[in-house]
Amino acid sequence: MTGTRVTIGEAARRSGVPAKTIRFYEESGIIAPAARDTNGYRFYGESDVETLRFIHRARDLGFSLKDIGDLLALYRDQGRASRDVKDLALRHVAELERRIAEMTAIRDVIKTLAERCHGDHRPDCPILEDLAHVPQKVS
Amino acid sequence: MTGTRVTIGEAARRSGVPAKTIRFYEESGIIAPAARDTNGYRFYGESDVETLRFIHRARDLGFSLKDIGDLLALYRDQGRASRDVKDLALRHVAELERRIAEMTAIRDVIKTLAERCHGDHRPDCPILEDLAHVPQKVS
DNA sequence: CTTGACCTTCCACCGACTGGAGGGTCCAGC
DNA sequence: GCTGGACCCTCCAGTCGGTGGAAGGTCAAG
């Protein structure tokens, strides 16, 4: 419980979250304001670093800071229902799938147009023709 | 060539680009400053509306405003090489595929974790455990 | 002459940072 | 004791592609 008191730079190294981003997280309320040393420097304990790692991992998985706030609250709530966590995760999965489908559709359109483009010195190009004449919808 | 002079609202209706966004495009240099009527109102001709439709379509296909500027320049350059258009398009396809792959990997991780989560009243949850203990990397 | 739908400009905000200016602190070496 | 470099601090601006709103001018219908 003595806890290793580390500076923001060391917390950054241990969590993978840049110092600047840690300050930003504090500012935006996703983490509580850090304790301060007599010189005004922030310091962090082991559990703070764990929280930062949690956030880092969740960001890597594409969760918004808003969702991460909710996930952290659930994480800390011993009486949570796993249903709430699962629901949040599945909503994120649904959103990812929506975006994947959207991007895949776009990619296919452009790829098809590019395949029909000579790609040489000549100026005629189905890609520009598509953009200019807006033939069919994508979404 | 007399050209139907339309207001920004009408240009918005005809192009699908909101009036506010048209002003934003002008401000950010993607389109030239519109001509002004005696009352200071912007007005747009047929070719301006076509340009806006071009941009609208290109945005739908996920091109950045920077890329759209380049595409417009190529579109207007009668002596363009279709290679340049194709290259730009294929760079965009590559970026889309990178993002699709990234999101798909993330989705699979979360989906797998969610499948292992009871999703009921009980508090134990592999999703939170993953986030807390950061077992493997995603990217 | 008023009402409402337009148009104008300017400024602020979204998400999730990132970069930089300008300044304070701390420690190691000389 | 002093200097240098690596930290730390706060605050402001910029990224990208808009969107929302305030405050005010214009125009046509009733």
Map the helices and strands.
The structure is a homodimer of 139-residue chains.
Chain A lengths: L7 H8 L3 H9 L7 E2 L5 E2 L2 H15 L4 H12 L5 H34 L10 H8 L6
Antiparallel strand pairs in A: 1-2
Helix pairs in contact in A: 1-3
The structure holds a DNA duplex (30 and 30 nucleotides).
Features:
DNA-binding, two-stranded antiparallel sheet, mainly alpha, Multidrug-efflux Transporter Regulator, Chain: A, Domain 2, 6 helices, homodimer, 139 residues, elongated
What does this structure look like?
- The structure is a homodimer of 139-residue chains.
- With 139 residues, the first copy, chain A, is mainly α.
- In chain A, strands 1-2 form a two-stranded antiparallel sheet.
- The first copy, chain A, starts with 7 loop residues before the first helix and ends in a 6-residue tail after the last helix.
- Chain A folds into 2 domains: 1-80, Multidrug-efflux Transporter Regulator, Chain: A, Domain 2 (Orthogonal Bundle); 86-139, no CATH class.
- In chain A, helix 1 (8-15) packs across helix 3 (46-60).
- The longest helix of chain A has 34 residues, at 82-115.
- In chain A, strand 1 and strand 2 (42-43) form a beta hairpin.
- The first copy, chain A, is elongated and about 70 Å long.
- Helices cover 62% and strands 3% of the residues of chain A.
- The interface between A and B is large, with 56 and 57 residues.
- Chain A binds a DNA duplex (30 and 30 nucleotides) through residues 7-9, 18-21, 23-25, 28, 39-42, 59, 64-66.
